[in-house]
UniProtKB/TrEMBL annotation:
PANTHER family, alphabetized: FERRIC ENTEROBACTIN TRANSPORT SYSTEM PERMEASE PROTEIN, FERRIC ENTEROBACTIN TRANSPORT SYSTEM PERMEASE PROTEIN FEPG
Chief place of localization: membrane
Record key words, sorted: Cell membrane, Membrane, Transmembrane, Transmembrane helix, Transport
Family matches, as InterPro entries: ABC_BtuC-like, ABC_transptr_permease_BtuC
Keyword set includes Kinase: no
Family as reported in the entry's similarity comment: Belongs to the binding-protein-dependent transport system permease family. FecCD subfamily.
Taxonomic lineage of the native organism: Bacteria, Bacillati, Actinomycetota, Actinomycetes, Mycobacteriales
Protein name (record): Iron chelate uptake ABC transporter family permease subunit
Alphabetized CDD domains for the sequence: TM_ABC_iron-siderophores_like
Membrane-crossing segments per the record: 28-49, 82-101, 113-131, 138-156, 162-186, 212-235, 255-282, 294-320, 326-344
Cellular compartment(s): Cell membrane
Source species: Mycolicibacterium komossense
Gene3D superfamilies to which the protein is assigned, alphabetical: ABC transporter involved in vitamin B12 uptake, BtuC
Bilayer topology: Multi-pass membrane protein
Amino acid sequence: MPSIDFGHRQLVVRREPAVALRASWRSIIVVTILVVAALALAVLALGVGQYPVSPAQVIAILAGRDDSFASVLVLQWRMPRILLALLIGGALGASGAIFQALTRNPLGSPDVIGFDFGAYTGALIAIAVLGGGYYTTAVSAVIGGLATAIVVYLLSYKNGLAGFRLIIVGIAVAAVLSSVSQWIILKIKLHQAITAAIWQQGSLNGLEWAQVYPMVGGLLIACALLAFVGPQLPILELGDDAAGALGIHPERARLAYFAIGVLLIAVAAATAGPISFVALAAPQLARRLTGAPGVGLISAAAMGAFLLLSSDLIALTIFAPTELPVGAITVTLGGLYLVYLLIVQARRV
């Protein structure tokens, strides 16, 4: 059988004669650079704070060669925040890649569709009715995100799931939830409204090891589900007819990826609040760097981790010693990117 020319050199890993995993060398190089850059930023960020630690000392602490007081700063106080920035950024990037692939639209991001608003509304109800608390708020945020996703899915489903219809319905549901959230804030007590406003910004401030473990658990579940579903997402981007011809049930696969994407955005929002625009920008930036025909989960996750950690480092240093919520930085940078994306989309019409 003649070989297929994919237009660029690829790495092929074969498990069986009929099953092969392909990745372009350009994508592998880009992902490697993003991972190395994120790790370098992590070393730098671990030393940033009121008590600075040099990168050389940070490396010595991580290698177990330094057990001074600085090791407490690095390992107990700062490490959870940096790990969560990488994990949450990766989850947001992968979730954005899934929804942009399902909708076949660069605007098909979970924060545009409204799942972030669902998580925020769930957290707000927990703060208003149950008095808040981290785990109560986190669980309520997950439930709110999942409930919103179900509503958007049911309202947008008509003889299949059309990407453009999903985006329009999601925007409408997000507007309704925004109004409900504002009404709740006007009715609750002042200290509850302040707590809700802080959570709404999306912040990594004050996160500890206790928040790392649930985040890791959620990501492991999502990774297991992705492994079970298999690499069907690029095939879905070809359209239902092509996917069906290749032996894939489009609606079943689309629903599975939809659930995984919602899980990723829900656990991220439950941990740090709704952090906007990372899920929107990361897949498209990664796609441009890799030159891939479609969005890739691994490259989008690597880009998301790099973007969120970079934004958090800016939030730590721009008005030091005051620490800004990382969501304030991602909204500023992401808003500029959204304007650029809308201009590009308008020129193509």
